[in-house]
Specification:
single chain, Thrombin, subunit H, Methylamine Dehydrogenase, Chain H, five-stranded mixed beta sheet, four-stranded antiparallel beta sheet, 10 helices, 61 strands, globular
Length: 868
């Protein structure tokens, strides 16, 4: 059993803080989300997370010119050098909390860090005979008493330009050999002609001419008297350095051409040297693209009403990455300014995600949040496909019908809405006979009935899908109903009254089972033989669905391990008694139970052995509350815990986004009070993929996807000493393909399995599949399903023939071991559906071209006949 689940993606949250960057060599866009970095691959249309995570929110990061290294700084000033290919930290160091900007030199040998009013340059990979020092400081320059906000290197890596809150731009040549404090020795050129803090400053391509932009929207072009490649090399007869000066040749207020009000600040800027194009972003969501040096406006767009925090050009300069943030709302867009269309446009939930559910095929994920929105995400690419906004209050639960064509959602407004996934519309609304709030919803396998639970009325409502009429109201519980689960005709409901009621929805017969504590969750196993109930004492009780008798219990109270929150007045040991798991779900093969709740951990338990198999920590980000095992006693003062108090005068940031405003009692969610708090990390819902290869956790941060597919693992199958790669190569040379496939399956080496399959002649596929033992046929079928995208890039028809003959000769054996094979079949259907859609799109686009070419050929033939 493979339990190597690792975080592969984060849905529901596309941008949170920091800057965005394009990879220098590929079409990948990097975005920071709290302490994680999400990578959007725009070419392959997929997204993923870098395995590296910081212990605090990331405020700044940069990529080396080759894209192999990344330099990351968090809000406490901890810096990390990351290998982007492996996603691991190569080295770490401590700089300062107030880091303004970081940049690699063009040759990737040096790193410039701007913090407070200083700029420090470090030599990377400084190695000696007996030691390795990844950081070697070569110079430190104090430019201002205010914070430096931006810096850049010249193309030859000789000089640095930097600007900050003092409205000045400084140009200097750093020392690169040995450490020197150059405050007194070095001549720097200060240029003062701006009216506001410097937002960005750049060098022009292969030149010392520079460009600077301030937050008032003014752009200034500076002309240098130095020859490129020979900065400060002119000396007089006495050996003194000649004068270095920069002339202001152009100054323009950029937003005047776009009719942007004067009180709107410029938030960020980027410059593409090869095309001489400048882009500036503004606090009202506007973006202006100008040509340099004429500053003529090329384009002006508006991407929303919230402030654009970061913009970045890709390597060719034809795509523009845009990151916007306002409150909890984050948005990432890639704008093709030449074609004037969006390459990608993704928006996060504006508030906490409360529920998540995989579709029956596993290809889609539905989420609902406190913002009243229901979003549908592609599980393969991580992109949002559609957003339903009909709900007027928080969404409490989402549920798919058996065919996956309809998504149901319940809300605190007291309605259940059915959304058509083909036409993307709300085609049915189910209303309660009296005003009440709904907490959860489900449907039967035939999708004829819709069942929802009232939050405070202790009732269960049943509607028909076809007409939307209310057909029955179930009562009997004396306290709040925590959850419901449906299998066949049997509806199980658990409540805070310490009972579980199993109701036959056909004849309305009821069986009541007494529980030891208040119930929190209930779920049926996919095999239909047992059900599990989670109670407040952190125990998972399992019952037989045939006899309703208890058959086992899993005690989870020692696995919850909740951290002490900043607002917890009582001690950790006392507060942890009231914290427990709140959600459970079976895996598709019914062998595992996934549990999550009011803690930073999710756990996987074995159903057969009733033991903990894997414990996963959702985040190590101490910017969230509940991650640390106890509070920081150094924050306790005579005025209380300083974590409760907003110490920053910044209206936007507050400790670099580490805290957010606290809502006052009786106000709307979006209204902020004077105090601030750190969001508490907890799981709000759990969902297992039908393929069994991944599961989703809806938590404070978003929807974390844990998958087995991201990482390759050497997992030998029936391995013995005689099985070697050399033996497999010998068998392939002897045309013994059947033995070669069996041996490669024993080694479970991806390259060897692929090579053994691809060398099989087309006419021998049927015979090999027929003679392949079932134990290896099953293993090969599951392996091909899990690696479908890789092996079908060039040989799609060949692999389809293999799958067809495997099913033809081993179908009955597969059916007998359906529990192990069905997750692979679901994953295979999901991959095939994606390939079908891709091929159909290509053929539809090429249909008109082929018809035109055929028509041209016919016309040419007619002309040839006439001429003859």
């Amino acid at each position: 059993m493979n339990l190597d689940y690792r975080a592969s993606d984060l849905l529901g949250n596309v941008y949170k803080n920091g800057n965005i960057l394009f990879h220098p060599a590929t079409d990948q866009l990097y975005s920071t989300i709290n302490n994680k970095i999400k990578v959007f691959d725009l070419k392959d249309n997929i997204s993923s997370l870098l395995p590296f995570t910081s212990n605090y929110n990331i405020v700044r990061f940069t990529l080396s010119p080759s894209g192999r290294l990344a330099f990351i700084v968090d809000c406490l000033g901890r810096a990390h050098l990351i290998n982007t290919a492996k996603g691991v930290a190569v080295a770490s160091m401590k700089v300062s909390k107030n880091v303004g900007d970081i940049k690699f030199s063009p040759d990737s040998k040096y790193m410039a860090i701007a913090f407070d009013g200083k700029v420090e340059v470090y030599l990377l990979n400084k190695a000696t005979f007996d030691s390795f020092n990844p950081w070697f400081k070569t110079c430190s320059v104090t430019l201002s008493s205010n914070k430096i906000t931006h810096l850049n290197w010249s193309d030859d890596g000789e000089i640095i330009i930097a600007g900050g809150e003092d409205k000045q731009v400084a140009v200097f040549k750093p020392e690169k050999t040995s450490y020197q404090n150059q405050d007194k020795k070095m001549k720097m050129k200060l240029m003062t002609c701006h009216y506001g803090s410097i937002v960005s400053c750049f060098f022009l391509k292969n030149s010392y001419d520079c460009l600077s932009v301030d937050d008032r929207g003014y752009a200034i072009l500076w002309k240098s008297n130095q020859i490129y490649g020979k900065y400060a090399s002119n000396r007089d007869e006495e050996g003194k350095m000649g004068p270095v000066f920069f002339d202001r040749t152009e100054r323009i207020r950029l937003q005047d051409a776009a009719s942007i009000p004067n009180n709107v600040d410029c938030t960020n800027a980027d410059f593409h040297q090869a095309n001489n194009i400048l882009v500036t972003s503004y606090a009202n969501g506007a973006i202006i693209i100008n040509e340099v040096p004429t500053f003529s406006m090329i384009q002006s767009i508006k991407v929303g009403d919230v402030a654009v925090k970061s913009v970045a050009f890709n390597k060719d300069g034809d795509w523009l990455g845009i990151a916007s943030k306002g409150g909890a709302l984050g948005q990432i867009a890639v704008w093709g300014w030449q074609s004037e269309c969006y390459v990608m446009n993704q928006q996060s939930h504006t508030h906490t995600i409360t529920c998540v559910q995989y579709s029956p095929s596993g290809s889609l994920i539905a989420t609902g949040g406190l913002d009243g929105k229901v979003k549908i995400w592609d599980a393969g690419s991580g992109n949002c496909q559609i957003t339903f906004t009909e709900h007027k209050n928080s969404v409490t639960c989402v549920c798919w019908t058996q065919g996956g064509n309809v998504i149901l959602s319940s809300s605190l407004e007291g309605t259940v809405r059915a959304h058509d996934m083909k036409r993307y519309r709300n085609f049915r609304t189910f209303v309660c006979p009296e005003q009440t709030q709904l907490s959860c919803v489900t449907t039967d396998k035939t999708s004829d009935l819709v069942i929802a639970v009232a939050k405070d009325d202790y009732k269960i409502f049943i509607w028909t899908m076809d007409t939307g009429n209310l057909v029955d109201v179930l009562a009997g519980h004396s306290s709040r109903i925590a959850a419901i689960a449906l299998y066949g005709n049997m509806l199980a409901s658990v409540s805070w009254d310490k009972t579980m009621r199993i109701t036959n929805i056909i004849d309305s017969s009821v069986e009541t089972i007494q529980l030891g504590e208040e119930a929190l969750s209930v779920t049926y196993a996919p095999c239909g033989k047992l059900m599990a109930v989670l109670t407040y004492d952190s125990s998972i009780s399992m019952y037989s669905t045939r006899t309703s008798a208890p058959i086992g219990m899993i005690d989870t109270k020692f696995d919850v391990n909740p951290g002490r929150g900043a607002f917890d007045i009582i001690k950790k040991g006392t507060s942890s008694r009231s914290k427990t798991f709140e959600y459970i779900e079976f895996s598709p093969d019914s062998n595992l139970i996934l549990a999550g709740g009011n803690t930073n951990y999710v756990c996987l338990y074995s159903v057969k052995d009733r033991v903990l198999l894997k414990k996963i920590q959702m985040t190590v980000n101490f910017s969230f509350d509940g991650v640390a095992s106890d509070i920081n006693f150094r924050q306790l003062t005579e005025f209380g815990n300083l974590d409760h108090v907003e110490l920053s005068s910044d209206e936007e940031g507050d400790d670099n986004g580490k805290k957010k405003k606290m809502a006052l009692a009786g106000t709307k969610i979006s209204d902020a009070g004077e105090r601030a708090y750190k969001p508490t990390m907890r799981a709000n819902d759990v969902s297992y993929s039908p393929t069994g290869r991944s599961f989703a956790i809806a938590n404070t941060e978003g929807v974390l996807i844990y998958s087995l597919d991201r990482y390759d693992k050497f997992d030998p199958f029936m391995l013995d000493v005689g099985v070697t790669p050399q033996l497999i190569e010998t068998l392939l040379l002897a045309n013994d393909y059947l033995k070669a496939i069996v041996m490669s399956m024993k080694l479970n080496d991806e390259l060897l399995i692929t090579r053994s399959l691809m060398e099989v002649p087309l006419g021998d596929i049927k015979i090999i599949c027929q003679q392949l033992p079932f134990i290896y046929a099953e293993k090969l079928f599951i392996w091909m399903a899990n690696n479908w995208k890789k092996i079908t890039k060039r040989n799609i028809e060949f692999i389809y023939l293999f799958m067809e003959h495997l099913v033809e000769y081993h179908a009955m054996n597969f059916k007998g071991n359906a529990r192990a094979v069905i997750p692979a079949v679901n994953g295979l259907l999901q991959s095939m559906e994606g390939q079908k859609k891709l091929l159909l799109d290509i053929t539809k686009k090429n249909k008109s071209t082929v018809e035109y070419l055929l028509h041209v050929r016919k016309m040419a033939d007619k002309k040839a006949d006439i001429s003859t």
